Amino acid sequence: MIKAVQPAAKWKLLVVDANSAKLLNTICKSHDILQENVTVIEDMSQKRQPYPNYEAIYFVTPTAKTIDRIIADFKQEKPSYLAAHIFFISGLDEPLFDKIKKSGISKFIKSLKEMNVDFMAMEEQIFSFDMPLSLFPLYNPTGSVQQMTELSKISKKLLSLLITLGDSPFIRCYDPNENREGLAYKLGQMLQNDLDQLEKSDPDFPLPSEYRKTILIIIDRTFDMMAPFLHEFTYQAMMNDLICGDRSKHPEPNLPLTHPNYFSPIPMYLQLDETDTIWLLIRHWHFAEAVDYILNNFQKFLTENKAAGAALGNTSSLQGIDALKQMKDTLSSLPQFQALKAKFSIHINVAQECKVLFERRNLDLVASVQQDLATGETADGKSLKNAMLDLIPVLDNKNTTVNDKLRALIVYIIAMNGIQDMERQRLLSTAKVSPEDSQGITNLSLFDVKLSSTGKKEKDKGRYSYWGSYKQERKKRNKKDDSMPYDLSRYVPIVKRLIEDQINNSVPKDIVPWIKEPRPEDLGIASNTLKMFKFTSNGIVPPDPNYPNSLRTTRASWAGRARVKTSAKAKDTPKEVADWRRNGSRIILFSLGGLTYSEVRSCYEISKESQREIFMGSTFVYNPIQFLDVLKELHKTDTPALPASSPALTSPAEPKEEPKEKKGLFSKKK
């Protein structure tokens, strides 16, 4: 986009809004943009100085307010810029396009394109719409009108994603009440209508493909209400829960939900991305494996670099966190090893802090109780006898945070399928939970969680129940084959079972019906489905015998498929991804109301196990504290909204003429 605009005067400006600035920040750095002869990056919502001798690139969201601002820039007696190159992040509605045509500024517009990039590719297989407050219009009991408006916005964003992929998928939606009135089904119908209209208007969509048609599964957050509250001890999830979720460590600890920085990844040093090779490899490993890898990799560096080894001394006698602490202390005193420090220091800090917080908050006790409740059995496979007696020590522990107590209590209520009101009040009193915090439990009812043990019996969802047939399956399963063999990591998110069933064509049609049911020949089970492959190519790292349960991830498959308009030709699919698509339909799972990091991990697990191309996305990916904070306020009648503006990539600047042995974190199941 920026490289495509080459004005005669060489220099150009970039104008962005809050949404497009966030999107750019996930793709590139401001330095990269300024290197392309861009003199200034401007925030459209702010008052801007005119630069009539420079052409402007607008990378913006197609809204009425945006169009009005573009028109205003050129309607005045002296236009703000010499010309405009307009790139919309998503499709432009006809009324807004007509408004531009009738405005009289067409002579200034040198190019206008719909980019269809109105989503954030967080990782190679994970996308987000960056809509953290969508829970309010989706689940707030007073928001029926806002709900349909929000679903329409989400449908347009999903359409943008599918245009980028060149896909018009078969759609199926979670419909637990079998009445075609649930959130997921409503969204599925909207999206199908949008796709049908697009196919009528654009003969080049969808792109021709040699592969089976993609399957899009839409669920909502009610599909699994355990996952948002459980402690997850894989590296990425643990970091986001314990460090990013600890508001006291943020520069602004008391931010309201509506503050643009509330949902940002703060502290800044934790903004790990795909350029960090260590992060890319270990983010979905169990924390114990991740620590071992960091330590072993560090020792390998010392062996290969004798100068560094001599300077740092002997660290081989220490293990785990103790060794990491010595590494950190020694690196700090040796400025000559900057490359080594840059490679390891962030991960050393993260690992140390996670371990400290794990011990300080008694998470071995909290997570053990949570896992027993979530799976319906103890770590040694025995049935729960008196779950409340196990819960009391968690609620009565002074070192357990209020939020950890709430999370344990919520899991207990869900596992028990509701409890007596008097029992709930006693447990809240034991935990010393304030009325404001306990509102989070009350608001669970907005997600169809049964709070009271009285009333009608919950509909059996079979394999998608919290215990259900899952408990029987676990008893039959060989423990050596478990993908996460740790006492505190036994729960398998229900979305993993759903995707497994889709791969095997065994998803029940009554609970997850099709919008337009495919023919049987359109769905096939590849012979290599659901096996653990030792597959070698440029796209996946071979299983490491030292870390047999670790995850390896494929290269981003949508990163190379940018489309400027719906008729654009997609770039060649990477060979390794093409091979995976030959194994069966691409599967996209979209969750209304948020994803968790345990579900993100599951996406990579099942993709590796089945060698299938699987994407997962949502309105937002929450850490547990973010989700809990929203839950506590979800009953309020005034739907909050994030501010319309946020800081752009850089501050505007004047352009120059020539600008230059207890159940611990590391305990495996016996």
UniProtKB/TrEMBL annotation:
Residues 639-670 are annotated as: Disordered. GO terms for biological process: vesicle-mediated transport. Residues 654-664 have a biased composition (Basic and acidic residues). It comes from the Eukaryota. Belongs to the STXBP/unc-18/SEC1 family. This is Vacuolar sorting protein VPS33/slp1. It comes from Boothiomyces macroporosus.
